[in-house]
Amino acid sequence: MGRVTDRRPVVRIDNGKTSRRPDTLSVEEPLEIRVDGSPLAVTMRTPGDDVDLAHGFLLTEGIITSGADVAGAKHCMDTNLNVLEVSLRAGVPAPVTDPTRHFYMSSSCGTCGKASIDAVRIASVYPVEKDQLTVTPETLSSLPDRLRERQKAFDRTGGLHAAGLFTASGELLCVREDVGRHNAVDKVLGWALRSGHVPLTSHILMVSGRASFELTQKAALAGIPLLAAVSAPSTLAVDLANELGLTLVGFLRGTSMNVYSRADRIAGGEE
């Protein structure tokens, strides 16, 4: 496993005084994901939990639907730790590379470079609109602090996003950090897939930043009925959540929150 953080020299200016010192930064490195020997994607990520990342990526790209679809995953030791080889189980269709979809992902935007919204839409096999999840506002309000308490690398760098998977009662099951929002989510979903928890019926996905179209789609593809974010959602995220019947919560801070879709799953949420 590569380093999550590294040190770099910095010139510090504070109240007119200048000093030199080392600063702790988040590591960002490329990871090439290969499927059965063929390159599929390159993502800029924080090293660590790469196998989970690959599983989550394949799940949320519609290439696999269960952990059993993967026969094995390992780093290519004859090259470097930034190449991960995934072998699909016999009978699982190989991914088809669409020329309108460019499987290069920056750390800031998982859908950058894709030609159109139609090109990135993936049909979910799990009907999240039928999920009977109910959760209290008090439980939701407790999630940001619980997630923040587990952001160890963020404490050292201030530069990593986090995603956390919770039960309806607020139990924290898994936290992953990464320089990219979409990578942090894929790492969480990959862990859940490998642990046999997908579909994630009656679970909550909490993210430390904003809620984008892509993160909303990733939640639905894993069968998660509620996505909560500390910051704002985008218009496409709200539209997709309403279309799929997924509960989308934004600006979850303290005891306040905005519920943009399916407020009926939150006690007292329906006017």
Describe the SSE topology:
Blueprint: E1 5-14, E2 17-26, E3 29-35, E4 38-45, H1 50-60, E5 70-75, E6 83-88, E7 104-105, H2 117-120, H3 137-149, H4 152-157, E8 161-167, E9 172-178, H5 181-194, E10 203-207, H6 213-221, E11 226-229, H7 235-244, E12 247-253, E13 256-261
Parallel strand pairs: 3-6, 4-7, 10-11, 11-12
Antiparallel strand pairs: 1-2, 3-4, 5-6, 8-9, 8-10, 12-13
Helix pairs in contact: 1-5, 5-6, 6-7
Question: Can I get a quick summary?
Answer:
This protein is an alpha/beta fold.
| Average residue-wise pLDDT | 88
> Tell me about the biggest sheet?
6 strands, mixed
Cα(first) to Cα(last) distance is 50 Å
Q: Work out the number of β strands.
A: 13
What does this structure look like?
There is one protein chain. With 271 residues, this protein is α/β, with parallel strands linked by helices. The chain has two domains: 92 residues, Ubiquitin-like (UB roll), CATH 3.10.20; 138 residues, Cytidine Deaminase, domain 2 (3-Layer(aba) Sandwich). Helix content is 25%, strand content 31%. It contains seven helices and 13 strands. The strands form three sheets. The chain has a six-stranded mixed beta sheet, with helices on both faces. Helix 5 runs parallel beside helix 6.
Name some characteristics of this structure.
271 residues; alpha/beta; Ubiquitin-like (UB roll); Cytidine Deaminase, domain 2; 2 domains; 6-stranded mixed beta sheet; 5-stranded mixed beta sheet; 25% helix; 31% strand
